[in-house]
Amino acid sequence: MIRLAEVSDIDAMVEIHMRALPGDLLPRLGRAFLGRTFYPTVLGSGHGFILVCEEEGRVRAYVIFARESAGLARDLSSRRVAIGWSILRRLWLDPRIPLDVLAFLRGRVELTEPIEDRERWPELYSIATLPGDQGKGFGAALVQEGLRRLWSAGAPGCTVKTSSDRARAFYVKNGFRDIGVETRGARRFYILLHASEPTRC
């Protein structure tokens, strides 16, 4: 069953996030950051929504969509104190965190096709499935349902960024196409687009 996430799902989403994406920046900021700052902020934001896939009474996967990429980013950045505190608390475990945060903030985007007001477009922020449940179609079902909700609200398209070749192939299989790259320090992220109508790109 796919449904909108609730506050009671936060612990399950944190667990999935930590296990499925341990090397990403947000999990490296710790469980407390995800559970007390990140997920409550997204759930409380009018600029984003989270869908979960629940099976046999257990959340198996989630996806986060921003209705407007810049809007959700603003809501998250308004929690600067909590973010800064999380960085300081984790610094002794992971001294590269400040450099990675700086690289994220200074990311350089190169598009192969221009998109007007790209920061105002919806964005697929994050998706993860419990490691033992990968390959069962939960992720694809969540992406398609999220896109359906965006299209029904009149969104012109949706972007996503990933540094993983495997994730890039997953997005292409689900109707996204490459439109550029973002460089963050030594890491390169593919930028992909799924348009609600091909003529709008």
Looking at this protein, list some descriptive labels:
8-stranded mixed beta sheet, 201 residues, alpha+beta, 27% strand, 8 strands
Across the major sheet, the strand order is 1-2-3-5-6-8-7-4
Strand content: 25-35%
Portion of residues within helices? 40-55%
N-to-C order of helices and strands: EHHHEEHHHEEHEHEE
Sequence stretches where pLDDT stays below 50 over 5 or more residues: none
Give the oligomeric state of the chains in this entry, treating copies of one chain as homo and distinct chains as hetero.
Answer: single chain
Outline the biggest β-sheet: 8 strands, mixed
Derived structural class: alpha+beta
Total strands: 8
In whole angstroms, the N-to-C terminal distance is 32 Å
Could you report the average pLDDT, rounded to the nearest whole number?
Answer: 87
**Helix segment tally:** 8
Cα shape: globular
User: What gyration radius follows from the Cα positions, in whole Å?
Assistant: 16 Å
Q: Please, could you describe this protein's structure?
A:
By secondary structure, the protein is of the alpha+beta class. It is built from eight helices and eight strands. It has helices spanning 10-20, 25-28, 31-44, 69-77, 80-90, 97-105, 138-152, 165-173; strands at residues 2-4, 48-55, 58-66, 108-111, 123-129, 157-162, 177-184, 187-195. The protein has an eight-stranded mixed sheet with strand order 1-2-3-5-6-8-7-4, sandwiched between helices. A hairpin with a 2-residue loop joins strand 2 (48-55) and strand 3. It is globular and about 45 Å long.
